[in-house]
């Protein structure tokens, strides 16, 4: 493609939109499933008569499976074709959904959620690869906006649907609901998506997979164990965490020497890609970590039902729905930096309000802050990812998409664990119990009329202090965002990832990384 493309060439044609609809139908399952389950965790703890520390593995096991399978997706997209891979991902996700709905104890539920995660982990990056290949690099911002639709439906529909199913039907239907969606998606993928040519020439980096996938899983496992173990000094925390770091370090050292590594480190020679990865990492840690706290605040401190908690989360999704389509088009025209920075300012403004939250903070104030944060999320998430992909060729899009997905899932899971650790420790300190019992003690005290007022105020203060840490992390995200591209890029015919694309923002001197 050249800069002399005819007028209107940037618009998404009917063929691309048809492919987008099919991809959205598949990816919406995985995103909805995550938000649906978060609202249902307390109901699941009661159903299986287990502690909150144990029931968290219903969510953590899913995230571990995502982090484990994502590194394989880039190679599998090249080797087998994205259409075949997407169909396999849907089948695995459906199998996990049906079995999770049939679970007979907490162990079986966690195991089946892991199977579900193996399919879910491939859906998003494979879908992103299908979309970017269909549209081309010049329209990647618009593509990301379209693919962001499931990310809007998740925050809006997921908690509401999950709350209604848990309160009125059965927790099992939070998994069974995926079956009709998945069957329809599978049929449409088979009929609509064009068959792509596999590229069997590259040898699969099996040693790299053995190092990177278990390394990510072990690191997240160790971090997630901190609340239950009571500190970082316990063997079940530091041993898997150090083992994971060693495996990841070994992978990085080896990837520099082999011809076809599982994750192509040469991509990081591209300035835009490196900066986008750094910004995405901080964003995922802060925002997705905080996302766990919002429904928990409504359920624990305010005593809302699961359905009401889901409804109260809707303003955030509505705010994102308003800005995300506009942000994608603007990122293509004026550059991601000029879109992402105002978005981060909005998120910071909303988060500041939550750092002052109490047991009786007016709902209008809470909902307004969530709406403002949603506006910021819609202007931030997809432009960050499009900044990483817009100067790459189709040959490298699959691996670049995989790398971005690894960053988002791994750091999002770590951020969630960090926020859980901080909140658990603060609650434990407020109620004078071990760390792993903090949330249970708070729940019991709040439900006791004799201690309700004191307990609710103490728990709210713990949430406010935790939100301060989320605010710090999102503020740090502003630093790499300052160096995102400030204007649209000219697509070069040179190799992707060479870092030679020049920033067209007048008066700006690009900061060169990795040269």
TrEMBL record:
Belongs to the major facilitator superfamily. EmrB family. One of its GO terms (molecular function) is transmembrane transporter activity. It is a multi-pass membrane protein. This is MFS transporter. Pfam families: MFS_1. Keywords: Cell membrane, Membrane, Transmembrane, Transmembrane helix, Transport. InterPro entries: EmrB-like, MFS, MFS_dom, MFS_trans_sf. Residues 19-488 form the Major facilitator superfamily (MFS) profile domain. PANTHER family: MAJOR FACILITATOR SUPERFAMILY MULTIDRUG TRANSPORTER MFSC. The chain crosses the membrane at residues 12-32, 54-73, 85-104, 110-131, 143-161, 173-192, 204-223, 235-253, 273-300, 306-327, 339-357, 363-389, 410-428, 462-484. GO terms for cellular component: plasma membrane. The keyword DNA-binding does not apply. CDD domains: MFS_LmrB_MDR_like. It is found in: Cell membrane. Its main location: membrane. Residues 492-515 are annotated as: Disordered. The keyword Zinc-finger does not apply.
């Amino acid at each position: 493609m050249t800069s002399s493309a005819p007028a209107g060439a940037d618009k998404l044609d009917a063929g691309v939109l048809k492919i987008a609809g099919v991809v959205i139908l598949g990816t919406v399952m995985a995103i909805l499933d995550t938000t649906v389950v978060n609202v249902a965790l307390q109901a699941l703890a009661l159903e299986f008569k287990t502690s909150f520390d144990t029931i968290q593995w219903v969510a953590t096991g899913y995230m571990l499976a995502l982090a484990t399978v994502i590194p394989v997706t880039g190679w599998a997209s090249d080797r087998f074709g994205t259409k075949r891979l997407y169909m396999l991902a849907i089948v695995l996700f459906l199998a996990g959904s049906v079995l999770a709905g049939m679970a007979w104890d907490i162990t079986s539920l966690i195991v089946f959620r892991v199977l579900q995660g193996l399919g879910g982990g491939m859906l998003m990056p494979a879908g992103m690869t299908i979309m970017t290949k269909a549209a081309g690099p010049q329209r990647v911002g618009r593509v990301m906006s379209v693919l962001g639709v499931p990310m809007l439906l998740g925050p809006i529909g997921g908690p509401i649907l999950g709350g209604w199913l848990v309160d009125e039907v059965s927790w099992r239907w939070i998994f069974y609901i995926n079956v009709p969606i998945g069957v329809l998606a599978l049929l449409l993928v088979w009929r609509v998506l064009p068959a792509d040519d596999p590229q069997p020439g590259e040898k699969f980096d099996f040693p790299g997979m053995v190092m990177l996938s278990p390394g990510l899983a072990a690191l997240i496992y160790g971090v997630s164990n901190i609340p239950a173990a009571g500190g970082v000094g316990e063997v079940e925390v530091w041993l898997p965490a150090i083992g994971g770091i060693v495996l990841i370090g070994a992978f990085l050292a080896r990837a520099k020497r082999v011809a076809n590594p599982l994750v192509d480190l040469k991509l990081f020679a591209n300035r835009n890609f490196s900066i986008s990865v750094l910004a995405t990492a901080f964003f995922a840690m802060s925002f997705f970590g905080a996302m766990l706290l919002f429904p928990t605040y409504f359920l624990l401190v305010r005593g809302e039902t699961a359905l009401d908690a889901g409804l109260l989360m809707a303003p955030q999704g509505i705010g994102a729905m308003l800005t995300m389509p506009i942000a994608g088009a603007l990122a293509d025209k004026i550059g991601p930096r000029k879109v992402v920075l105002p978005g981060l300012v909005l998120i910071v403004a909303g988060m500041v309000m939550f750092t002052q939250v109490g047991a009786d903070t007016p709902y209008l104030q809470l909902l307004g802050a969530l709406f403002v944060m949603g506006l910021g999320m819609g202007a931030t998430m997809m432009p960050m990812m499009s900044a990483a992909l817009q100067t790459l060729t189709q040959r490298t899009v699959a691996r670049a998409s995989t790398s971005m997905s690894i960053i988002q899932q791994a750091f999002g899971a770590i951020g969630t664990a960090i926020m859980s650790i901080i909140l658990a420790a603060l609650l434990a300190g407020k109620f004078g119990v071990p760390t792993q019992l903090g949330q249970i003690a708070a729940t019991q005290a709040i439900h006791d009329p004799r201690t309700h007022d004191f307990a609710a105020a103490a728990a709210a203060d713990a949430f406010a202090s935790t939100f301060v840490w989320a605010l710090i992390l999102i503020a740090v995200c502003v630093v790499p965002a300052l160096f995102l591209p400030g204007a649209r890029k000219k697509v070069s015919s040179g190799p992707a990832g060479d870092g030679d694309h020049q920033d067209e923002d007048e008066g700006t001197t690009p900061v060169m990384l990795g040269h």
